[in-house]
């Protein structure tokens, strides 16, 4: 997996001052174990948090840093931490790490867990101290077998060093950490579905409120954070708020750095730690190297399969939540995918919607029935058997499954790329309407069910 630095590929070496997440990585790609991690200032932030900072001060520092969730939703981490109850009599609380990285085109958390497992453990240790949680779980995608092996080894190393378990660093604070491998469902990326799965239940999202901070795992206060989010915490505690904010580019409303990447038929597909606010063009041209010879960029997704498609002229947008929102979609995970000019958009969307349809938990009707309906229509259009009105029905489904129309965010994410693909490449969809029915296109009324 490729990792480069701030400037065009390999011109600047990673350092603790500029690359808080990745500067400890080994050039050979092997995992950094405890002795090497500590030699590279590992667990210094945890010692500072345990000996020099009050628990509420840790929460306030993270809040002041502007750190936001790195799993795709982008909710302010310090604000989320502040929702945990202040009542000291509630002595059973949980910290969950969402490592169920199943978003297509996304692999950033896998790299951190496989190569820097102690960075995640240190981030969770500091977070547990701040949140007064006595037990933590890393809910890991079941297919990440190497990450599971490395995390379990790192947990044992930390226990042996007195960094997990009882009376950590002589503070009187206890924290146990467990690696829990999931059964393999995309919906477990939603925090309450993750909680249900951890409890041994069906992975359906829960109604909110109550929020996990009030009623989470086994009915106790729970905080759920993404892998990359937690990995940012040690650097913020060690080097401070002002430094962390200074990492982002001018104009960015998001602070710090972000693991970003590009996949597809680009010359240098990979993953890089970059400051929020770099442009999509820098990411695409300077790091990914542009398209391979013989291919042309047709469109791109900025952050996983659940984000809308953008055109080449949108590459000048800054890569942060507000910057991508200005061109009509979401930052998501920050790992982009290039679509080349040989790809038929109908076939691509049929493939995507098949995935999202299969991964629906089936709890609410619009998602359970609407996504398979979209697959059926897209398959017919792909085979040249589409009927007059199919495109309008697809657009109706985009609206009917949009934000606020379903129980969780699965369906809105599933149909966002569909809506954008029809917006920018409608002729490709129209080409799949059977010729004998194409003459009726202008006389179709959108079905009431999906047009409401």
Automatic annotation (TrEMBL):
Q: Molecular function terms in GO for this entry?
A: 4 iron, 4 sulfur cluster binding; FMN binding; metal ion binding; NAD binding; NADH dehydrogenase (ubiquinone) activity; oxidoreductase activity; quinone binding
Designated gene of the protein: nuoF
Q: Which domain of life is it from?
A: Bacteria
Q: Name the PROSITE patterns for this protein.
A: COMPLEX1_51K_1, COMPLEX1_51K_2
- Write down the SMART domains for this protein, in alphabetical order: NADH_4Fe-4S
User: Which residue numbers delimit the NADH-ubiquinone oxidoreductase 51kDa subunit iron-sulphur binding domain?
Assistant: 346-391
Which Pfam family is one of this chain's hits? Answer: Complex1_51K
According to its UniProt entry, the function of this protein is described as:
NDH-1 shuttles electrons from NADH, via FMN and iron-sulfur (Fe-S) centers, to quinones in the respiratory chain.
Question: Would you tell me the protein name for this molecule?
Answer: NADH-quinone oxidoreductase subunit F
**Which reaction equations make up its catalytic activity?**
a quinone + NADH + 5 H(+)(in) = a quinol + NAD(+) + 4 H(+)(out)
- Record text on subunit structure and interactions: Composed of 13 different subunits. Subunits NuoCD, E, F, and G constitute the peripheral sector of the complex.
Q: Which EC number(s) does the record attach to this protein?
A: 7.1.1.-
Q: What's the family?
A: Belongs to the complex I 51 kDa subunit family.
């Amino acid at each position: 997996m490729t990792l480069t630095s701030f400037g065009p590929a390999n011109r600047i070496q990673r350092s603790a001052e500029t690359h808080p997440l990745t500067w400890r990585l080994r050039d050979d790609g092997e995992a950094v174990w405890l002795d090497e991690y500590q030699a590279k200032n590992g667990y210094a932030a945890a010692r500072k948090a345990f000996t020099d900072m009050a628990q509420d001060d840790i929460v306030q520092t993270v809040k002041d840093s502007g750190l936001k969730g790195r799993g795709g939703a982008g909710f302010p981490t310090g604000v989320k931490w502040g929702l945990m109850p202040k009542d000291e009599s509630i002595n059973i609380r949980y910290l969950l790490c969402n490592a169920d990285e199943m978003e297509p085109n996304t692999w950033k958390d896998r790299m951190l867990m496989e190569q820097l497992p102690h960075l995640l453990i240190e981030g969770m240790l500091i977070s547990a101290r701040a949140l007064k949680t006595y037990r933590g779980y890393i809910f890991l995608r079941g297919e990440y077998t190497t990450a599971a092996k490395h995390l379990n080894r790192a947990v044992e190393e930390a226990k042996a060093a007195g960094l997990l378990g009882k009376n950590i660093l002589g503070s009187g604070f206890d924290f146990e950490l467990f690696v829990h491998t999931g059964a393999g469902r995309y919906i477990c990326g939603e925090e309450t579905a993750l909680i249900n799965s951890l409890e041994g239940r069906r992975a359906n999202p829960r109604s909110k409120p109550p929020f996990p901070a009030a009623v989470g795992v086994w009915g106790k206060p729970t905080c759920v954070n993404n892998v990359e989010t937690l990995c940012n915490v040690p650097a913020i505690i060690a080097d401070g708020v002002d430094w962390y904010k200074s990492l982002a580019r001018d104009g960015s409303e998001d602070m710090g750095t972000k693991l970003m990447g590009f996949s597809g038929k680009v010359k240098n597909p990979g993953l890089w730690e970059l400051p929020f606010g770099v442009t999509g063009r820098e990411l695409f041209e300077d790091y990914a190297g542009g398209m391979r010879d013989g291919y042309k960029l047709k469109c791109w997704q900025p952050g996983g399969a659940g984000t809308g498609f953008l055109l080449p002229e949108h590459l000048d947008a800054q890569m942060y939540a507000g910057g991508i929102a200005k061109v009509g979609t979401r930052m998501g995970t920050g790992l982009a995918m290039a679509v080349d000019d040989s790809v038929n958009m109908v076939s691509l969307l049929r493939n995507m919607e098949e995935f999202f349809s299969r991964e629906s938990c089936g709890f609410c009707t619009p998602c359970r029935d609407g996504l398979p309906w979209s697959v059926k229509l897209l398959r017919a259009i792909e085979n040249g058997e589409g009927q007059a009105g199919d495109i309008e029905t697809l657009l109706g489904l985009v609206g009917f499954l949009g934000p606020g129309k379903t129980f969780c965010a699965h369906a809105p994410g599933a149909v966002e790329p569909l809506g954008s693909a029809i917006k920018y490449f409608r002729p490709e969809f129209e080409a799949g309407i059977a010729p004998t029915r194409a003459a009726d296109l202008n006389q179709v009324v959108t079905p009431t069910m999906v047009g409401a």
